[in-house]
Amino acid sequence: MENVAILLSYTGETHETIGDAKLCRYGGTKTISIISFGQFASSAGFSYILDFFYSGIFEKDYLANYEYMLEHTGRLSMVQINKKMSDI
User: Fold this and answer.
1) Over the stretch 37-86, which tens digit does the pLDDT of each residue have?
2) How far apart are the first and last CA of the chain?
3) Is 31 helix (H, G, I), strand (E, B) or coil?
């Protein structure tokens, strides 16, 4: 399995974004950079793009990912229920 870093930035010109991109390149990690090129961008727009990527990755092995999600959200629910019960 390969790693991919997604870099989100309004300009792509900050020291942090450039440094992160260089670190990824040095480590051999592929990158996807999403920047606005100075146009208006919002956190809602970035959220939409991340949801789009996530849904595409999730769909690749839908059944396995869905079962994994159910198993782990079920565990989280049980932890929350147990914590509430211990607080009583």
Assistant:
1) 667 667 788 888 889 988 998 899 988 888 888 887 776 666 566 666 67
2) 45
3) strand
From the list 18, 10, 16, the residue with the least C-alpha distance to 36 is: 10
pTM of the predicted structure, to 2 decimals: 0.59
Tens digit of pLDDT for each residue in 8-42? Answer: 888 888 899 999 999 999 999 999 988 876 676 67
C-alpha 35/C-alpha 27 separation (Å) is: 22
Question: 32 and 5 in contact (C-beta within 8 Å)?
Answer: yes
Whole-angstrom Cα distance, residue 21 to residue 73? 33
CA atoms within a 13 Å half-sphere pointing along the CA-CB vector of 65: 9
Structure tokens at 46: 């970035």
Instruction: Kindly tell me the sign of the dihedral angle through the C-alpha atoms of 15, 21, 48, 45.
Output: positive
